[in-house]
Structures are given as C-alpha cells and as structure tokens.
Inverse folding.
C-alpha cells in the first residue's frame, strides 16, 4: 500500500515498519517515530475523516478507536500503534449501510459544521462499548472530551441515547 | 516535534539502561507529546515502555493494592477493587481529563504530568521551569491558575493532577527502578516544591523508571470525597481541588487525611491540619480549623486572590461530604 | 399533490449529513494534491517594534525544507491599502502579512517555513530565530479610556437625555464589561493552494466568502482572472472566515515563489493570532417612572481596536431600538491598542451590547419592584426609535407570552434568594434578544438537467448553517420537485455572485435569488412545454399552471400535465440565472428578528459554581425554511450564550502584550456536561416586506440575550450582580 513518503526532516533517523489493522484491512507502513497516528491517517493514508481540531488532546475531533477503545489520535505516535486494530470514522459503516450511530446523528441533526462529528461518533461508539453510562448525565459527562463549537450537544445526546441499543447489537455482531 | 530516536525495550532493565538525560520514557504520551509539539520538551530519544510487563493491578502482602505503572487511568478508576476500596482515587481520576485521555494516560505518567502554567507552555515567554534562569513570567503575569502555597520567587506553578491529590491523601508509595536497583518513595516525598530548581518537578533521576504505585490497605472507603472546583462542568483543570478522607468512630474523627490540588507545586498536605481533626466531632467548627491550618501562610498573587477563600470553602465542603458518607 | 407536501417548513434531515457522518466531507486542509508542500507559520513574540534579523539557517538545514519565507524574500505584493480591503474590512489600513519589518501585535506571522512534509515544516519552524527591537506597547483597554476616539459612523440619539434623566423618579446607572473572546471554530483556518501548470491557482480555503478571498488574492498578488477559491465545507467559522486570514496570502506567496502547491494550516494556538470579539467597557444610565416606564436612556461603549484599523460593530444601537423611550443618547468610542483588529463574531455588537442593556433593564425592574417581563411589556414598541419606522413584523410579544408560558415564568417570586434546593440556590432570569433582518444583493443559477434533476448554485457558504439544505428546500418548493431531485452547489468562486455568508442574511439574500432563479426557470420550462406539438399549455401563462411532484400541470385542466423530465428531453438542458436585491418597500420599514430568553440557574453559593439547568428560547424570525436545522442553530446560540455568561475569556498579559490561554484546555467553551435542557421554538411571524420568502435569518439571534438572561438568573438566585463577564466562581464567592 502507499507507504513511501518524502523525507520528513529526521536527518539520520530511520523510519520504522509498522503494521496496523486499519478499518479491517491489514496495512504495513514505514513511519518516522515522530509521526502521530492522526498525521499518518490524514496526510499519508488519505483518511481525512479523522479531524485535527487542536492537535493537543483538548477537543476530541481526532477520536478514533484503537483496539476498541476511544483515544485521541493526535497524542498517539504511529510507531506505538504497531500491531493494533485502528477504527476510524471511515471504518464504521458497512458498505452503504450507515452505522446506527451515524444514522442517529443524521436523524437527530447532531451536528452543524460537521468538523467535530467523526470524533463525536467514534467517541459515542467507544462510550457504548465501555458500558459505563447509566443515564443522560453520565453520557454528558463521558462525552465531554468532544467539543462541539456549534453547540449541538442536546442533539448529540439524543442521538446517542437512541442509537445505544443498536450500537451494542452492532458491536456484538462485529465480534461474532 | 523535533526528530528523535525511538526505542522499544521489552524489559524494565533494558528500559532503564537506555535512559539518560536526553531520553524520555513514553507510555500514554498524552502529556509528553503535547509538550513536544509546543517545543517545551525536545528529547533526543523516546523510550516506549508500553511493552513492559507493568500493566497489572494486584494485592500486596500488606493488604493494599499494587498498581502497575502502565495501568491506564480508566482501567484504574473502574477497577472493582478501586471502586470498592479506594473510591477517593476513582473519583479523583474520573474528575480529570476526558474519557479518551484517561484511556491513554497511565498511572506512572500521571505522576509525571507537567504543570499547565501558561508561561511554561508558551516558548515566547520566560519560564524558569522550562528554561532555567529565564525568569518567571507568571509571578507578576496572568497567574489566575497559580500557586498560593509553597511557591518560590522562581516559580509559582501548580501540579495539575487530580489523581495525585488522592494518592497523596491515601499515602501511596511510588516504586521506582534505576540502574542501581529499586527504591520506594513515600508519595509525600515524590513531588518537590519549586525552590530555586523549578525545572525539577520530583525526586526521580533521569534514569529511574516508575514501575508501580502502591496503595496501603486503608482506603477510607466509607468516608471520603474528592471535590474539584473548575470553570466548566468537565474537561477543565482545577481552580482548587480537595481530597478528604476520614475514619470515623460514630461522629468522632479517628483519623483524617486532607490534600489540596491546584494550590501548590505538589499535592498540598499538612500534618498539623489533619492532626487538628483527630478526636474532634465531624462538624463545621473542626473542619474550618483544619482548613485554616492547611492554608496558613497562603500568599495569593495578582489574579488568584480568590483562591484561599475558595480553598477554605472547598475543604469544609469536602470534609462535610466525606463525613456524610462516600458518594457512590 | 397538496401544498402541505411542500418541502418548505419541513424538518428535513441535512442533505449533507451522510457526507459529514462518514468523514467524506472534505474541508480546506483535506484536499490531496501530488507533490504538495506544507507551510508552518512562525509567529512573533513582541507586541510592538521591528524585526532586526531573522536567522533561518538551522531551519533551512532541516532535510525536506524548501523555503523560509520572510518579509525580505517574499514575492511582490500590493503596496496600497485598497487591494487588501476585503468585503468585511474595517476602516483603516488592513494588515499585510510579511509586508515589512514592523511588528504590530504579539503573534504576528513573521515567517513561513515550507517543506516536503508537515512534520519537517513544523520542526523547522521551531528553529527560526528572530531578533527584535521592541518598542513600548499598550494592550489594556482600561488604560486608554482617556485617549479614546469616536468610532467612525454616527450613532443615533433623540430627545434630551440629560434633562429627562435628571427628572426621572428612578435612576439606574452601572458599568458593564465584556472580555475578548475568540471564535475557535473546530476546524482551524487552512488554505490549500493548488498551483496549476499555467500559473493559475485553485485554492481550497476556510472562508465564509469564496469570492471575497478570490478578489483579495487577485488584487494583492496581481493575479486577475487566475484565481478560483473553493470551500464546499467549512468546519465552523462564526465570523472568523468573513475576512481572508493570513494563512491564505502566506500559502499563495509560497506557491508563487516555488511554483508548487502549498498548504498552510494554522495550529490551534495560532487561532488566537488574528480576529476576535473585542473587549468592551460599557455604561448604561436609565431613568424611569416609578412604574418602570422608560424616560431616559444612555448607553455608551468603549471597544478596543488595533492601531491600523477602526473595527466597529453595532453595540449600542439596540438600546435605541428595542424599547419605547423618548430620550435616548448613545455613544460609541474606540481605544487603539497594539493588537490585531477585532473581527465580527456571532451576533457582533449585539451579543455584548444587548447583554449590558438587558442586565440594566433587569436592574430597572428591581428598582421599580416589578416583574422583569412586565417591565419589557410596559415598554414595548412596534417602532424602531432609531429610525422612526415601524417594524415590518415583530412578534416579540408572542415570544414573551409563549416563552413565559413554557418556562413557567408566572410562578417566579420576584424576590432574589427565594428559591433553594439542597446546597443550590435557584434563579430564574429573562432577557430580550434582537438582531437585524438584512438582505444583500445575491445571484443564483437554476439548471434543469437532462436527467430531470435540478441543480441550483450560488457562491455562498455552508458553515454549518444548513445552507445546502435550506436552499434545496427553497428550490424544490419552487419547481415542485422532491428534494432528492434537487442539488444545491455552493462554495466556489466561479458560481453566481453571493454576499459573505454572515449576519444571518443568507436565507434572505441567497434564498431570494434561488427563488427568483427558479421562478425564471419555471417560465423557461413552460416556454419549452409550449413548443411541443399539440401542447396543452399553448397560450398559458405561469399563473395558469402549477409545478407539482415533478410535473407541469394546467390549473384549468388538471388532466393536462407533462413531467419535467419529458419537457427537458425535447428542449435539452434549461437554465436561468437571477439576481435578487432588497426591494424598495423595505426602505419604509425597520426589520429585525427578536427573541425572548428564559433561563434557570442553580448556584452552589459556597463554591461559586453555576449550572444552567434550563433555557427556553422563543424566536420570531419570519417563515422558517427548516425547523430542524434552524432550531439547532438557535440551540447552538444558546450554548454560546452559556459560554459567554460563564466561561469564555481570552486573557492578556499586558506586560507582554500577549494572549496567554491560547488553547482549548484553558480557553473554555462549553462541553457536553455544561448543557442541560434547552427548549427552542419559533413563534408564527408573517412578513411580506423583508424579502420574497418572508424568512429572516437565525444565525445570530440565538445567542443574543442569553448571557443577560443567565446573569439575571444568577442575580435572582444569589442577590449578586456580576456585571463583568464571564461569571466565574471567583466572582460569586
């Protein structure tokens, strides 16, 4: 796959081989140590669905699932993801069938500009997988790592509440 | 970020052998990469310790809990033993950062978090912690978030962790491994006050690695509270935070622990304040005296004159909550 | 088909929703170009002075670095002010990046490092050393009060304020302050300049005006006819994209110099190095009769601006328009500082001015010991006193009544500190919101394609506002087509002329143009239908036919019908372009949107923390094209109001002349946990004057009044008046 990359300024330091299971596909790449997972996805693999809002773990726009857990891709070095399973927003839908969380975000109008949306959705899927949110206040608290400057929070909450059961079923199916 | 060499050792000894002044360990990466992107840190080598066998939570012979340095903040906070026996720690962890960051950040890394001082982070301004001798921008600058206790002329930064405030109150120990073997550091002694060496946050040597944090058997499970006062409901650093833990005999205090966050270069405890509570009835009068003792000698700065009073009220509230029974 | 199936007024799902939830919507920094170079900006650290030297040796030595661009080696750029004056320029001399060695503010871009990779560019940028000769600076508005100058333009006044105030039974006078705030859209500003083989530039920019940016680049670089700017998706802007921001000219400079494609994406920290909502220091003095009838009103504001431009917004005019009062004096001054020029930010002027007015009104209500809502009703007017004209529509009274009903306002005890639950004091507050209902000239093209689909286009933007969706609905309605047969295109400077996407004027301006283009296309379709042999429409005029469900139908004989697809098969593609501009009739009227905002807060008095547990926002904005997206925008405005009331503030170290909390960890905007129940609804409001559609915009009105309602609720809860925003815990303990 497209692994070649122009020199990124490292002088004599070599790129390292990294293997990922990215959205269900096996990918082998050479990556400089200082490349973040976020920059790898966006700048080299063309997966720009994962957004860069702050690049410092302060907004959540870059949220992806690594081994099923939600993390901030901006604060993860790509070399440290070697051997891991990475799911981005591009890997949620099954063909033309939207993931239930994606569908609920559309029907509840849980966004405006759409820039925080992939991170919100990945974070929401991660939240459901964690299974620790007992009610609306828990969802609000546990989704607070995803800033929506457009302020669509009430609709985000409604979308997650609605899509949680189907998302659980979706996750279980994925495991089978 | 500057280019750096990368190593991924598979044993603790190997990791320690690789360490040195120009190297840094990396695990969760949530703070070190943040700082490297700001050019605050420019290590020549990162030593990835995530493959080391430090991810276990296990009981100790003394009846406490040994938490591997690589246990993530979320795994720790939601661990059944921690939820059940050390709710103060769970509450503190869950009041910090975001779910994503807690999934990444580790126990050891949390202890090594650098300050959120705005001057430390901005290389366009002076900071003795970042660049010794350049001056303290915050002392006469915008110092709303800064220290009121234990600060020095050189530095008024505060330690940003919530988890560490609880660990201080619980009197945890930090297990460390270096080239000359292992040592165990009382939590109280782990972090430093800035003095004239604010660049040093703690007593760890460059080639020492935190391997675990040990909790003693006593978790104050029935009467503890972590209270964090911040400017939004979540995902914000503390203006002031309080870890309060009581051991009660009826309504009489047998033992007390009290630690503050957001006020000093380290989690702030004073034996005197805790001793004042012992033998007293758990009520406002005693709580207020403990608060006075803990905050005695506060020196607010231009923009944080509110902190001593806010801290006083937060202490009384946290002690009241703790006395009323741990919120579950 | 019955009219009820018209897409107008339907809560249609956002048409661009699937692209956004799957990550397929591409924003300015996300267009792939082979051989793309990356630029990283180096910003200055002093507030005023000169650059003595720039040492780029170390940066240039980094492998992959192609260029370190500074004022000394940049390509030629225009030397007069005029080429830099964009459509939203303030009065004065616009900022020119890398123009010369002058440093005008802290954070000013002083160099651009261009490299083969993002990582190399960023690293090399950190190695550029700049030597300065600093000069004394001033960034504190409070310290230049005595040197303030009147803002350009006139503010209206009427009657005799001083006399009336002196004679008033009740006199309420206070000062109010609002801090610097930054837009902080989630998407940082970015420009991707695609250098074409012939030297033309195709630019993907984060902007609210693709044509504004196109003209700017053409004029500043002398590239007339060679520039096309696109912005199909914009990750929020809230005003930050109204003017071309510096990453655009920097990226263009590098592309021209290297004859390569270049992207410059700002870091979050750099989002604090251009425009912002200015700090204001305001004073209101209101004289009223014992029962609260306004007799005299003074509202003065001092806003900050840069030394090179006079930024103005409507801060005090609202006080002369919202209530009946015969004696009004308004004042608006500016203080020039060593800072960048402020920039319109969501409800510019109104957000801060109405905050002060509506808190002062609450203070008058308490001085008169009457219910704050009663006070508003007592001073109600259907006339804009500044202009002496009646409003074309103003259903504010309905907003008050229905909003109060849904909120349960009638159960509110007047006395502060009378509601409590556990450790929390509860307070209920309200405020009025107001914004203009503007219309700007705009054009649109409607094209019925050979496959029967309608493609409508205009060079406007969708910054999350729902433009794609609303325009689709307007066009579908006009031609009686299902919405899935309609596509709306925007965000391309090559499309028909559109104004900046701002000021809540897009539905009004572009929507009217779309409506007219579609009306014109209807005529073309009818003409074409009449060309067919034995056409049942021979001699028919548009009044004699209807367009329903993809068919042209005769009103006289509903059996006489033909599908648009059939028409187009014989005629070939049909298209029409139209321009809409404000009608003459508008001049006789004042126009505006209005709202009534009710808020409930719970204050932990010991700790000074505030939760906004309930907000009801009742809005009168004419005919609502899409209640789903419109309500979402209002909700967003309410969330902004929560941030403005309790959290948002950019802190300046005045010794350094530098913003210090320049990130999203320390510049607080609301997170999910800050937001509780928000109920938004629109009252019925008909308006045949405001534009063809009877629709007013909703982008700004949602925030206006919210901070005041919350601050007033905090007073009701605690008995404390905090007049300087934001109301952080330290101000309440």
């Amino acid at each position: 796959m497209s692994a070649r990359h122009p020199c990124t300024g490292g002088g004599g330091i070599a790129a390292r081989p990294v293997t990922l299971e990215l959205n269900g596909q096996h990918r082998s790449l050479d990556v400089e140590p200082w490349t973040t997972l976020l920059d790898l996805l966006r700048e080299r693999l063309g997966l720009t669905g994962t957004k860069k809002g702050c690049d410092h773990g302060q907004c959540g726009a870059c949220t992806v699932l690594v081994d099923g857990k939600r993390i901030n891709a901006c604060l993860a070095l790509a070399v440290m993801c070697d051997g891991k399973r990475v799911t981005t927003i591009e890997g949620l839908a099954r063909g033309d069938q939207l993931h239930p969380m994606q569908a609920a975000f559309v029907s509840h109008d849980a966004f405006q500009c759409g820039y925080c949306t992939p991170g919100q959705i990945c974070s929401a899927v991660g939240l459901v997988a964690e299974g620790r949110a007992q009610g609306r206040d828990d969802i609000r608290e546990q989704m607070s790592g995803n800033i929506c400057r457009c302020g669509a929070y009430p609709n985000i909450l409604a979308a997650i509440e609605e899509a949680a059961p189907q998302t659980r079923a979706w996750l279980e199916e994925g495991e089978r | 970020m500057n280019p750096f060499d990368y190593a991924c050792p598979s044993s603790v000894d190997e990791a320690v052998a690789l360490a040195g002044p120009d190297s840094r360990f990396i695990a969760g990466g949530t703070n070190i990469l943040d700082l490297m992107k700001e050019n605050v840190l420019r290590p020549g080598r990162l030593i990835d310790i995530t493959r080391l066998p430090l991810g276990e939570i296990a009981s100790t012979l003394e009846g406490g809990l040994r938490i591997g340095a690589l246990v993530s903040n979320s795994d720790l906070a939601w661990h059944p033993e921690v939820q059940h026996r050390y709710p103060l720690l769970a509450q503190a962890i869950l009041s910090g950062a975001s779910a994503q960051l807690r999934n990444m950040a580790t126990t050891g890394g949390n202890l090594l978090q650098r300050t959120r001082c705005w001057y430390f982070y901005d290389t366009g301004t002076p900071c003795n912690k970042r660049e010794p001798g350049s001056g303290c921008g915050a002392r006469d600058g915008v110092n709303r978030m800064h220290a009121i206790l234990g600060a020095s002329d050189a530095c008024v930064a505060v330690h940003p962790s919530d988890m560490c405030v609880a660990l201080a109150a619980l009197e945890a120990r930090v297990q460390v491994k270096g080239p000359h073997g292992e040592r165990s550091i009382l939590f109280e002694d782990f972090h430093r006050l800035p003095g004239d060496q604010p660049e040093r946050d703690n007593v760890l040597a460059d080639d020492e690695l935190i391997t675990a944090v040990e909790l003693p058997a006593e978790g104050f499970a029935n009467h503890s509270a972590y209270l964090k006062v911040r400017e939004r409901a979540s995902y914000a650093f503390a203006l002031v935070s309080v870890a309060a833990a009581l051991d009660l005999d009826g309504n009489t205090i047998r033992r007390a622990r009290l630690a503050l966050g957001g006020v000093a270069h380290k989690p702030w405890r004073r034996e005197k304040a805790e001793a004042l509570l012992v033998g007293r009835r758990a009520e406002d009068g005693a709580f207020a005296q403990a608060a006075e003792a803990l905050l005695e000698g506060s020196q607010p700065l231009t923009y944080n004159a509110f902190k001593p009073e806010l801290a006083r009220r937060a202490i009384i509230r946290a002690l009241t909550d703790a006395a009323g029974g741990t919120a579950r | 088909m019955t009219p009820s199936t018209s897409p107008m007024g339907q809560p249609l799902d956002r048409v661009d929703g699937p692209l956004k939830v799957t990550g397929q919507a591409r924003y300015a920094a996300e267009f792939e170009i082979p051989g793309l170079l990356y630029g990283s900006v180096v910003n200055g650290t002093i507030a005023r002075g000169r650059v003595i030297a720039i040492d780029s040796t170390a940066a240039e030595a980094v492998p992959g670095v192609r260029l370190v661009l500074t004022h000394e080696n940049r390509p030629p750029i225009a030397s007069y002010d005029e080429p830099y004056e964009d459509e939203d320029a303030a009065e004065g001399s616009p900022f020119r990046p890398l123009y010369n060695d002058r440093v005008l503010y802290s954070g000013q871009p002083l160099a651009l490092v261009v490299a083969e990779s993002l990582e190399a560019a960023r690293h090399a940028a950190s190695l550029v050393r700049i030597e300065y000769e600093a000069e004394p600076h001033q960034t504190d508005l409070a310290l230049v009060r005595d040197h303030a100058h009147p803002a350009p333009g006139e503010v209206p006044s009427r009657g005799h304020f001083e006399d009336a105030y002196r004679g008033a039974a009740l006199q309420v006078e206070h000062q109010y302050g609002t801090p610097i705030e930054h837009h902080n859209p989630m998407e940082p500003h970015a420009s991707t300049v695609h250098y074409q083989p012939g030297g033309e530039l195709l630019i993907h920019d984060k902007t609210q005006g693709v044509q504004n940016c196109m003209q700017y680049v053409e004029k500043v670089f002398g590239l007339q006819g060679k520039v096309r700017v696109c912005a199909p998706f914009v990750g929020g802007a809230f005003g930050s994209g109204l003017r071309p921001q510096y990453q655009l000219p920097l990226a263009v400079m590098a592309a021209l110099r290297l004859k390569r494609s270049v992207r410059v994406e700002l870091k979050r920290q750099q989002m604090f190095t251009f425009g912002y909502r200015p700090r204001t220091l305001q004073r209101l003095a209101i004289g009223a009769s014992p029962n609260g009838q306004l007799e005299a009103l003074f509202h003065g504001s001092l806003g900050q601006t840069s030394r090179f431009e006079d930024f103005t917004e409507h801060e005090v005019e609202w006080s002369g328009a919202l209530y009946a009062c015969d004696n009004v004096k308004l004042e608006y001054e500016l203080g020039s500082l060593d800072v960048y020029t402020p920039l319109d930010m969501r409800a510019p002027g109104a957000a801060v001015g109405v905050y002060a007015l509506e808190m002062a009104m609450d203070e008058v209500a308490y001085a008169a010991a009457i219910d704050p809502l009663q006070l508003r009703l007592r001073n109600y007017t259907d006339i804009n006193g500044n202009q002496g004209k009646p409003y074309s529509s103003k259903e504010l009274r309905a907003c008050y009544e229905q909003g109060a009903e849904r909120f349960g306002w009638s159960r509110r005890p007047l006395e502060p500190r009378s509601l409590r639950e556990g450790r929390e004091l509860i307070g209920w507050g309200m405020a009025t919101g107001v914004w203009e209902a503007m219309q700007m000239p705009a054009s649109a093209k409607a094209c019925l394609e050979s496959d029967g689909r309608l493609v409508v286009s205009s060079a406007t933007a969708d910054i999350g506002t729902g433009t794609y969706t609303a325009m689709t609905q307007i066009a579908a309605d006009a031609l009686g087509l299902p919405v899935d047969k309609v596509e709306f295109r925007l965000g391309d400077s090559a499309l028909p002329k559109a104004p900046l996407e701002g000021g809540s004027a897009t539905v009004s301006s572009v929507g009217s143009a779309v409506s007219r283009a579609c009306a014109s296309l209807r005529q073309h379709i009818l003409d074409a239908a009449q060309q067919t042999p034995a056409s049942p429409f021979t001699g028919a005029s548009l009044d004699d036919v209807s367009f329903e469900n993809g068919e042209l139908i005769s009103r006289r004989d509903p059996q006489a019908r033909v599908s648009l697809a059939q028409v187009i098969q014989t005629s070939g593609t049909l298209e029409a372009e139209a321009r809409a501009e404000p009608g003459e009739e508008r001049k006789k009227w004042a126009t505006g949107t209005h709202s009534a905002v009710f808020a409930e807060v719970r204050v932990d008095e010991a700790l000074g923390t505030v939760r906004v547990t309930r907000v009801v926002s009742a809005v009168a904005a004419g005919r609502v094209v899409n209640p789903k997206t419109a309500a979402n925008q209002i909700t967003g405005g309410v969330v902004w109001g929560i941030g403005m009331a309790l959290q948002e503030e950019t802190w300046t170290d005045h010794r350094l002349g530098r913003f210090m909390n320049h990130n999203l960890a320390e510049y607080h905007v609301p997170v999910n946990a800050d937001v509780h129940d928000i109920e938004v609804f629109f009252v019925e409001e008909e308006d045949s004057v405001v534009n063809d559609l009877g629709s007013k915009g909703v982008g700004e009105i949602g925030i206006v009044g919210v901070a005041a309602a919350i601050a007033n609720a905090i007073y009701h809860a605690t008995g404390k008046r905090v007049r300087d925003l934001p109301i952080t815990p330290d101000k309440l303990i």
Chain A touches chain C through 67 residues (CB under 8 Å). Residues 1-8 of chain A have pLDDT under 50 and may be disordered. The longest strand of chain A covers residues 16-22. Chain A has two domains: 16-91, 100-175.
